[in-house]
Amino acid sequence: MELKIYLFRHGQTYHNRDAIFSGWLDTGLTKTGIENAKIVALRLKNKKIDIAFQSRLKRSKQTLKKVLKYHPKCKIITDDRIIERKYGNLQGKKHYDFVKNNSPELYDQYHRTYDFPPPKGESMKMVEKRVLSFIKYLIDYMKKNKVNVAISAHGNSMRPFRRYFEKWTIKHMMEMEMPYDNVFEYTMKV
What we know:
CATH class: Alpha Beta
CATH topology: Rossmann fold
Number of strands: 5
Helix content: 40-55%
Largest sheet: 5 strands, mixed
Radius of gyration: 16 Å
Shape: globular
Number of helices: 8
Distance between the termini: 5 Å
């Protein structure tokens, strides 16, 4: 038997559009973000989805609501192990202002270094640890319940998912951009 995982990123948010560190701040989808979610919905329209996971953040929930338009009986579970990376003291700050007041090098360290957390925030290594605990739980859950799963993730929580399932290096994971309107499909044999 084959079970499917459908992984996607929430649509564009106001903070994404305006280059603001969101982290755990609750920002909603832009008009473009809603369109991104509708594209994901169409990509998944004819797929069998039994359970869907979202984080507590509005952008994950808004995206999933649009995606599940064609799956009205799908059960939804909120699990914050898939939440966005916490940017700590950087949350709510514009990228440009941070670079202007600090340096491009420090911005790059906080933004794309694996084990360098912003003040009071998470490194990608920390995000990967919690996402991996979710993946272990997810695999057991899917095997036990024989279900196909959709995951409305965030840009930085998608990175460890893709690293795990696509066998990426840390370097590759940190360099890749996560698209707003695509779906990554993974098959588990049980």
